[in-house]
Amino acid sequence: MTDRLYGLPIVAALALCVAAAPGLAQQAPDHPSVTVNGKTYTPRSILARNMGGEADPYTPFGPYRVIGNIYYVGTNTLTSFLITTPEGHFIVNSTFERNLPVIEKSAAQLGFKLADVKIVLGTHAHGDHQEGDALLKEKTGAQVMAMAEDVPLLEAMTPGGKPHPIDRVLHDGDQVTLGGTTLTAHLTGGHTPGCTTWTATAQEAGKTYNVMIGCSLRPPMVPTPQVVETFRRTFKTVRALPCDVQLGDHGAQYGMQEKYAKMKEGSPNPFIEPATCAQEADLGEAMLNALIAEQQPVR
Ligand code: ZN
């Protein structure tokens, strides 16, 4: 097993999403800037948008039903989705271990029990999205499944000395089914090697909608040729996925708080917005191209 990923020692790679925390990010030079869909972004502004303020990653948001059997049980800036079925539930993204009580309480407010969680999935092997997997399995006995390319990073994620559980290793295109609901895993690497975009369908008012739970498409400050090549494939993949409802691993990737504010009984569901499904790919690609233009990739 390699102890390096994308030319970085695993420990350094593991810290990437959490290095989103202001302290580290502010030391880095904050360029380039790119303008996408009328908004200007820098590497630091994308981090700030994703993570929010100090308390946001730990502050419960909602909970609420997004669409069909898909519910939001996460925080202001870190998403966690509870997908319910008559045979038990999925959790996509356990987030930080300390957020497990948030997830449990949110599920209970919606009328569901954490004990009924049978399958734990994630978008990518960074602590802010999957650190809670081990504790969640301990509490529920759920099966934890992960994309093969993220397994080395997950194995290095051992909060409180607990080994990261992996009950099933997934590959691009694999399907996970429980109680009549199927989630399909799409390999969309770059942010981490096994970054996973999940697709599913959900029913509302007699119609079926394609739901996409996207993985972060934020490139590292120094994209290696391998990362660039991986992202090129990923942007194509993401744009080709069927999508009526775009979700992600940080709410700001899909304007969660703004859409939530528009939810109203009897009005169209604001989360159904196919036109914005490719916006994170547009932003990630523009930033990647700007980074390449600005600095020679490391060889
Ligand atoms: Zn991350």
Ligand types: zinc ion
Distinct helical segment count: 10
- The CATH superfamily appears as Ribonuclease Z/Hydroxyacylglutathione hydrolase-like
What's the CATH architecture? 4-Layer Sandwich
Binned strand content:
15-25%
Q: Give the beta-strand count.
A: 16
CATH class: Alpha Beta
The structural domain count equals 1
Shape: globular
Low-confidence stretches: 1-16, 18-25
Helix coverage percent of residues?
25-40%
* Main sheet makeup: 7 strands, mixed
Explain how this protein is built.
With 299 residues, the protein is α/β, with parallel strands linked by helices. The protein has a single domain (29-167, 181-294), classed as Ribonuclease Z/Hydroxyacylglutathione hydrolase-like (Metallo-beta-lactamase, Chain A). Helix content is 28%, strand content 23%. It is built from ten helices and 16 strands. Strands 5-6-7-8-9-10-11 form a seven-stranded mixed sheet, with helices on one face. Helix 8 links the parallel strand 15 (207-213) and strand 16. Helix 8 (225-240) packs antiparallel against helix 10. The longest helix is centred in the last third of the chain and has 16 residues, at 225-240. The radius of gyration is 18 Å and the shape is globular. The two termini are 22 Å apart. The relative contact order is 0.15. Mean pLDDT is 91; it is low at 1-16 and 18-25.
Produce the secondary structure layout.
Blueprint: E1 4-5, E2 8-9, H1 10-14, H2 22-27, E3 34-36, E4 39-41, H3 43-51, E5 64-67, E6 70-72, E7 81-85, E8 88-92, H4 100-109, E9 117-121, H5 127-130, H6 133-140, E10 143-147, H7 151-155, E11 168-170, E12 175-178, E13 181-187, E14 196-204, E15 207-213, H8 225-240, E16 245-247, H9 256-261, H10 279-294
Parallel strand pairs: 8-9, 9-10, 10-11, 15-16
Antiparallel strand pairs: 1-2, 3-4, 5-6, 6-7, 7-8, 12-13, 13-14, 14-15
Helix pairs in contact: 8-10
The structure holds zinc ion.
